[in-house]
Design brief:
InterPro entries: FG-GAP, Integrin_alpha_N. This protein is an all-beta fold. Helix content is 2%, strand content 46%. The chain has a 5-stranded antiparallel β-sheet with strand order 30-31-35-34-33, with helices on one face. A 4-stranded antiparallel β-sheet has the order 2-29-28-27, with no helix packed on it. Strands 3-4-5-6 form a 4-stranded antiparallel β-sheet, with no helix packed on it. The radius of gyration is 25 Å and the shape is globular.
């Protein structure tokens, strides 16, 4: 806060050029690259080396299809069909299910209530053979894989909203595996997404499920279906991108997901199946509309894991308003405070996404971003990657704005002043300050926020 009468915006800009004792640089520049052969209504993407050539490939699920996009190591992709069916393929997971050293693909499709795995032949070229695990997961949406019972065989989990069921399928360890279904829960409101891991440090694999609710099923020793239900939060919604990982590097699993009210939720595991919710949102104007594509990863190698999102387009809102219809990185300061930086604005249909990821696609040592769009008349625009090109070019000041460029302010008034730079995002070293001409003297004020190319002082 400050007292001021009759300041002039031109004087502010002049002072600003003189007194800013810090460096302004662009941290990232991202270049959009279309991936030829994308398909409509992409629901899920996974970034992983499928064929063992050390290059990160892309696997997608969507309308009736599962595709593998082979990377040549420079970010050029060749599409191969893994499976073509009659129903939308929602769930997707990649892991070696049969222990032969080759990465197989799991899928979940809703129209035929099917959970299936697609065996990787390990040959060149790779061929894929579909095996059904279950056809009783009504409206199957999500799949996950982990050794649930400690027998060294990878088991499978599914979430199916039409029957409200979370189930796990025990792998016999034979070739090919036989599967025995064990129900974790039925009639649930947490039935859209499933993951698993030891959440309470007892050595047993617990199950995490989200949908309208966020629920943890704590595994016991008595039987394959010995689970105790713990509802962590109700009314979550929009949890398509739920991830279980150690977000804060304290040794236990936290949960990250998009959620209702246009927010991203981080549920910090504080022990004994207790969680503290940290919400990321931008308020009423700069909001995140239905953040269904959410991916936690450390993008800048500092202060822990960041979060990348692709938020959906919101009706009549403009493509430049808030974080609607865009791709953004939320940079973490290490204390659950995040600064959003938008890395893509553009065609409204592009970021209408349910899945996003990051990996080094071109082997240049930095993380690129892959975005799966959902709806476009040209299916080739459904899948694209954003090439990360670090750029330390000096950012310059374009102009300065204030609520009232020339006006009278009373005692206690807050005067927000925005400094607009030539490019975004910008990084800073030092402490940005702004000196104002306030008539009888000068007043120095500090930066209070930075977003994209705008630094705000008051």
């Amino acid at each position: 806060m400050m007292n001021q009468t009759n300041y002039n915006a031109k004087k502010l800009a002049f002072c600003l050029f003189i007194i800013m004792p810090f460096m302004l640089t662009a941290q990232f520049k991202f270049t959009k690259n279309e991936i030829t052969g994308g398909h409509s209504n992409i629901q899920k993407i996974i970034l992983l080396d499928i064929d063992g050539d050390t290059n990160i490939d892309i696997v997608t699920s969507g309308n009736n299809k599962v595709y593998w996009f082979k990377n040549d190591g420079s970010g050029n992709f060749t599409r191969s069909e893994v499976y073509s069916g009659s129903y939308t393929m929602y769930g997707l997971y990649v892991i070696d299910l049969d222990g032969d050293g080759h990465k197989d693909i799991l899928s979940a499709s809703d129209g035929n209530d099917e959970v299936a795995w697609h065996k990787n032949s390990g040959t060149n070229p790779i061929t894929w053979t579909k095996h059904v695990i279950s056809s009783l997961a009504e409206g199957a949406r999500s799949v996950y894989a982990i050794d649930m019972d400690g027998d060294t065989h990878i088991d499978v989990l599914s979430a199916s909203p039409d029957d409200g069921k979370i189930a796990w399928y025990e792998n016999s360890g034979t070739s090919p595996p036989a599967w025995t279904e064990h129900q974790v829960g039925t009639g649930l409101s947490a039935d859209m997404n499933v993951a698993a891991g030891d959440l309470d440090g007892d050595g047993l694999v617990d199950v995490i499920a989200t949908g309208n609710d966020f629920t943890i099923f704590n595994k016991g020793n008595a039987s394959p279906t010995d689970f105790t239900t713990n509802i962590i939060q109700t009314g979550v919604n929009h949890t398509e991108s739920m991830t279980a990982l150690d977000f804060d590097s304290d040794g236990d699993l936290d949960i990250v997901s998009g959620r209702g009210s246009n927010r991203i939720g981080i549920w910090e595991n504080t022990g004994s199946l207790n969680f503290t919710l940290h919400d990321i949102h931008d308020g009423d104007y700069n909001f995140i509309y239905e953040p269904k594509a959410v991916y936690p990863i450390d993008m800048d190698n500092q202060n822990g894991k960041d979060i990348i999102i692709a938020s959906r387009n919101y009706g009549g809102w403009s493509a430049t308003q808030g974080n609607s219809d865009g791709v953004s990185i939320y940079f973490n300061d290490g204390s659950y405070n995040f600064t959003p930086v938008t890395i893509l604005r553009g065609v409204r249909t592009d970021p209408n996404s349910r899945s996003i990821g990051a990996a080094d696609l071109d082997n240049d040592g930095d993380l690129d971003v892959v975005v799966a769009g959902r709806w476009d008349s040209d299916n080739s625009k459904q899948l694209f990657w954003l090439e990360n090109e670090p750029d330390n070019t000096l950012a310059t000041i374009d102009f300065v704005t204030a609520e009232k460029p020339d006006g009278t302010y009373g005692v206690g008034d807050i005067i927000p002043i925005e400094v607009h730079f030539s490019r975004h995002p910008i990084d800073i070293t030092g402490t940005p300050q702004l000196t104002l001409d306030v008539g009888a003297g000068t007043k120095t004020i500090n930066k209070v926020s930075i977003r994209d190319s705008i630094m705000t002082f008051h």
